[in-house]
Specification:
CATH superfamily: LigB-like
Number of helices: 9
Low-confidence stretches: none
Distance between the termini: 29 Å
CATH topology: Protocatechuate 4,5-dioxygenase, Chain B
CATH architecture: 3-Layer(aba) Sandwich
Shape: globular
Oligomer: single chain
Mean pLDDT: 96
Helix content: 25-40%
Number of domains: 1
Largest sheet: 9 strands, mixed
Order of helices and strands: HEHEEEEHEHHEHEEHHHEE
Strand content: 15-25%
Amino acid sequence: MFAGSWYPSSPAECEKEINKFLEAGRQLDLPSGERVGGIVPHAGWYFSGSIACNVINSLKSDDPPDVLVVFGMHLHPNDPCVMMVEGAWETPFGEIGVEARLAGELASQFSFTLESFHHFAQDNTIELQLPFIKYFFKDARIVAMGVPPAKSSLAIGQAVVDIAKRLDLNIKVIGSTDLTHYGPNYGFVSKGAGPQAVDWVRRQNDRRIIDLMLDMDAEKVISEALTSQNACCAGAAATAIQTAKHLGADRAESIAYATSYEKNPADSFVGYVGIVF
């Protein structure tokens, strides 16, 4: 739904952008060892594509994953979880098939609003990652779902790992969230406008939730986001953290941070972080 506007619609143009992102990512200091997942932003590729691309690229390994589990969607604490349990997601590089066994078992254990290609929400948080996933993991399948910022979502993260182990599936996890949405466009102007507001977002509001993500404290990520409006999809980030921990991750590292202000200096802007587990 966002191809041709938020990111290119043709495979050639997508690959051209990806190569630019990878070139820019050469300067990033990636953590050593096996990487099981990450947190990515989901603005248009012009603004945050480089961060998302390099986080997802960093998940490549000698033992490629069978399935990418992606958490996203802009949901409120009392909203239902959302998932598509069969079919495929379309990308400019081809389709990514849904891992129906894993999705089906999740749907039998938890309450989900089930989507199909006939009935679905237009959602950028997941779609913006799909070309990267298909490009770097061409044979992998996907289970993508929306999870609200609620403690109950964390159990889904643990269940994903348990079910995958039982099905002998090698999985990696991605949580999709942007950070503070500041300015009149978002009804959040408590620190005025201009450079002082940008500095507050960078050094204080975004910093608080990034530190909690790096501490891998899933419950505090949710509570902090609800209090401070510094993550638009805290449920996705927190559930990805919980999943990564259950996969054995014991540390998280930030590989990039930016705001849309650098690309478009305006009174309204958004923060972005890339984190690897």
